[in-house]
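Justification of computing resources. Each target in the renewal requires a structure prediction run like the one illustrated here; the chain below, 336 residues long, is used simply to show the kind of job we budget for.
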Amino acid sequence: MKTILITGAAGFIGAHLTNRLISMGNRVVGLDNLNDYYDPGLKRARMAALCEAEQFTHENFDIAHREKIAVLFSAYSFDVVVNLAAQAGVRYSLINPYSYVDTNLVGFTNILEGCRHGGVTHLVYASSSSVYGANTGMPFSVHDNVDHPLSLYAASKKANELMAHTYSHLYGLPTTGLRFFTVYGPWGRPDMALFLFTRAMLAGEPIEVFNYGNMERDFTYIDDIVEGVCRVIDTIPTPNVNWRGDCPDPASSSAPYRLYNIGNNNKEQLLRYIEVLETCLGITAEKKLLPMQPGDVPATYADVDDLARDFNYQPNTSLEYGVGKFVEWYKEYYRV
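Resulting structure tokens:
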């Protein structure tokens, strides 16, 4: 049994991961301030379900609070920390950039310091497919250069990777960054396309389809994400003895540092995603075609060869199954 800190435990990925880790017999401390970036009621419902387990403890404050983070790491002896707390969303970063600095930069620094001084054996943290920014070579590989982000959100996630490497190098803190690709499924985020589309279609309203429908995404089902994270938690990275400074590999280091993509390794057109949802709902969507939004990218597609090689695992859930499970959950939760 491990004692694991999950930040962002009331979030979409955090709640699913926490539930899985508890079921595996671990003690989990879930840190989440239940903020109002999206419906806090949904976060409270996720948290209420988690709090039914004896081996779960909820800590309610912001990771940007330095003193409280220090006290938290003093109060518990964490074996592993999984940092999922973040200000999410590409478009929102154009509206409220300071929230990304406070949570994704200041907050992540607090987590790094807590791990450093708390003797944590492994820090696993959420990065994002957004870091690939202006890259167009597909599929996206962790061995590619990612120095051209297109949003402050993407830049903050790239910064997390750089910050983690610094702590791996200076203090020997083993860190693993996971670049998530368009995660969806039951209990999903209300600001994500699947949730927005479902709500609008059931209300008889048109759905907003950006880039006139010419978007492609590597849609990844939540259970696949959780399975990948659980496998990563148990594998502490070691220095890559073949790493060379004259030909540096961005995905590894002479320090105990690794980066991985977690995606379905299968890009799908957004219009195909909508077709599957239409079938599951039995409703034909009225589409409002709009131009590309600032900060968005036209396509994402994950190369997951490293994940398959190191963990003998590759996400592969079909859209039909994943979207169907989301629709089942949505109708039950909202009593449609």
